[in-house]
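INFO batch 0412 | record 1 of 1 | parsing
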Amino acid sequence: MNFLRDYFIFLLLCIEKYGLCQSNNGGMYSSSDIPTPAPKFITKGHLYKAVIGDTIILPCKVKDLGAYILLWRRGTSVLTAANLMVTRDTRFKLVDGYNLQIANMRIQDAGDYVCQIGDSEEARDQVHTVEILVPPSVRPVPQNGQITARKGSSVTLECKASGNPVPNIYFYKKNSHSQYHLSEGSTLTLERVDRNHAGIYQCMADNSVREPAYSDIELTVLSPPEIIAEKTWIHAAEGCDIQLVCTLHGDINSEMMWYLNSFLLDPTDRRSMYSKGDKYILNITSFQQSDFGNYSCVADNSLGRTKKYIEVSGRPGPAEFLSPTYSGHLDRYNLTFKIESIPVLEEIKLLYRKLMMNETYQHPGKWHDQILHPSVQRFDSKTFIMSYIIIALEHNSVYEVMVQAKNVYGWNEVSDIHQFYTRSYEISMEDLEYVMSSISLGTRTASYGDKFLIILNVFVVVCLMMKR
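INFO prediction complete | emitting tokens
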């Protein structure tokens, strides 16, 4: 029916232009008429890409159109004939002559549009192809964006996107400060998930049409509670106040309990328990002898129980060495270290030995031990600092040293091994660079007081180098 209607309109236009009947003497052409040039398109057919909602103009300019009628059609439907709008769609109109304007583009507007010269001996037409570009959209699978998985299992995150052209999908992991790219594609598979995999994942769909689209997926990992003790060893003394902290990860429904030597603790006037976010805190004031021992923070849920131990002791803490690795002397080494202890240190045991080594083997020598009763300097209310010069060493040698300390509560654990080098007779620039690197490493995490002692020791080393 549309085709008959369009044909009828086209016929009426022809009658209006040329008349209904023609006599032999009043025909359209006579033998004396000069033939007019055939109409010719000035514009050319083209592919037009338009974003949905935009407005486009399809050009159609003809040279020597003369008495011919210009039509716009799409498939079998005539849109315009001459200056007459045939289509009832108000989004279509002619502008600047016979150019066809289409406003508020829709997906169904995609296709071929033909500008045709009607009533000619041979059909002449020009074809414009319109492609509708659709900005991306994306949605998670499932649509609520919530996925739950057990610890140790594999989980696949999926997003579906639409748009024209087909969008690319990118997965990101969001954290509190930024996000980082994980993969490209509609799915992201995570193997052996744990609590570190939990969080918000974002899939981005992008096809370069306007702005990318985003959708979030929240992954929850079910697992037994995971506990991290802020400190596994805490120094204390009678009369002081202490604080024990455990951080709980995993199921928020887990219950945290505190124990001392396997006995469940309850709040008292000196003991309080509370939480701040994922941190669980045990405060003990006016510390007593009975408060020393092994504490544990315990959490359990439907998937299991986890326990972490914290030792609270009055014994000194392990020695922390502050001296540079390279000695400025041939036969001695200035050993500087600090020890955490609230009570005064009563004794310090020093153990050192030479390492017999060359390019092919390393053999430790015999340990030499000394009991020191030094006048140590208190750095703060909990820390002592001591320097001791080890003498009668061999030049150009490697030594190892350990320190153990005692206060009123007993001896601490023996420290980790600290390795140092005595100077050779020849000092090279490489040795000097080694000393400077020791300064950098030693002061990177040290406090201001510790940094001063490290730099002071190295200053002595460098002066001795220059003197020799």
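INFO post-check: Confidence is low (pLDDT under 50) at residues 15-32.
INFO record closed
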